Amino acid sequence: MKTSKPGLDLIKGFEGLRLTAYYDVVGVLTIGYGHTGDDVYEGLTITELQAEQLLQKDLARFEQAVNKLITVPLNQNQFDALVSFTYNVGEGALEESTLRKRLNSGEKPNIAASQELPRWAKGGNGEVIEGLARRRGAEVDLFCKPVSVQPAVKLSDVTSLQQTWFKKEPKPISELSNDLKAKVYQGRTYPVNQILEKRDGHTLLELGFKLGKWWVYDDHWSGLTPKINPYAQDGNLRYLRDFPFFDQKDNGPEGWRQCQTSSLAMCLKYLKVKGINDDTDYLKIVNQYGDTTTRDAHYGALSSLKVNAKFYTNLDPQDIKQQINKGKPVAVGILHHGLVSAPNGGGHFIVITGYSDSYWLVQDPYGDLDLINGVWENQAPGAGRNKHYSFKNLDPRLFYGGGASGWGWIFK
């Protein structure tokens, strides 16, 4: 595998670009995007193009190491995150790491990465280095992010607005021979076509009913804008694209009790509500209306933001799935303590952002919850992002009363 753009952007962002040689934090001469070696000496200067070439040369080495040392299949995001990690700590560190052992043993990769990567954020004196912690957090986020797939495109029906032509090439009709064009009369509709490409004012269609691939002149047709579903699909997982994640524990001294605040803030950020860039933005507004654990305080805050949302106590699984199908997240309350056979507790809020045929895709602002035993497996920063919480073990905590008994916020 090779590093894709998200991985490359992550590496460049954290390495930074320096065109004159310098000593890094551990005293190693460095240049470009974190390049080191015998070819780097004091006073050396390079161009941006040379920095890019050095980066690609280094990447090849670290890509080879990940490909060799990790023996289980990786998706593109997992591979990119491990290349960034190895670029930073070296091939030897990856080889000797517990992370490698856990991945190769067949453990759930997201759990292993969420627990192991943050451990590589300390300096020689054992203290956490803020920059490394941020990088490890970004690598965990990328590792756990579902692989982006092509948006689900609804096949388009197209209708000719005037007499026109199907063409085998996107050229003026006068330049095409008779075997490269076919006349179309005004008002003809062709259903279930896939849009393949756009160029020079033309669109390439794969026509339905096996009529072949033809170019059409855009101005002569309606229906050429593809309809994109508000969710993405990866196998049998249907999920909301690029969903943000906020950790409630960094919200100040009372962060431990702000799961509802952070959960709703994630939803508002995803829905592009003006003024909400993180959960502390929303926290400041909620505080104006009362205690953050009360429903009334959130109703006041949401109303002030002109957000139409309602809290329900009778949700069932289909209600939540219908919201995902509409491109809307659902912030739900669960009983997070006790065994799954007898859950209890005052309640904890999470966000459901997708579903498969066996699990909910969840953003848990407090960490990774052991659903069977009701204890937290991992509370490292980002540990609760993109968790696969099974229907079998989450539903008894979410629909505790059985049937339509789920509690949660629905966005209109």
User: What is the CATH topology descriptor of the largest domain?
Assistant: Cathepsin B, Chain A
Distinct helical segment count:
12
CATH architecture of the largest domain: Alpha-Beta Complex
Shape: globular
Give me the Rg, rounded. Answer: 26 Å
Structural class: alpha+beta
CATH homologous superfamily label of the largest domain? Cysteine proteinases
Terminal CA distance reads 42 Å
Low-confidence blocks of residues: none
Domain module count: 3
The major β-sheet equals:
8 strands, antiparallel
- CATH hierarchy class name of the largest domain: Alpha Beta
Strand proportion: 15-25%
The average pLDDT is 92
How many runs of DSSP E, i.e. beta strands? 21
Helix content: 25-40%
Q: Any key phrases for this structure?
A:
Cathepsin B, Chain A; Lysozyme; 412 residues; globular; 3 domains; 8-stranded antiparallel beta sheet; alpha+beta
Brief synopsis:
The protein is of the alpha+beta class and 412 residues long.
Word description of this protein:
The model has no long low-confidence stretch (mean pLDDT 92). The longest helix has 22 residues, at 48-69. This protein has helices at residues 5-15, 48-69, 76-89, 91-96, 98-104, 109-116, 130-144, 259-270, 279-287, 295-304, 317-325, 391-398, and strands spanning 18-23, 29-32, 153-154, 156-160, 164-167, 181-184, 189-199, 202-207, 212-217, 221-222, 227-228, 232-234, 237-239, 309-315, 330-334, 348-355, 359-363, 368-370, 375-378, 387-390, 406-411. It is globular, with a radius of gyration of 26 Å. It has twelve helices and 21 strands. Helix 3 packs antiparallel against helix 7, helix 8 (259-270) crosses helix 9 (279-287) and helix 9 (279-287) packs across helix 10.
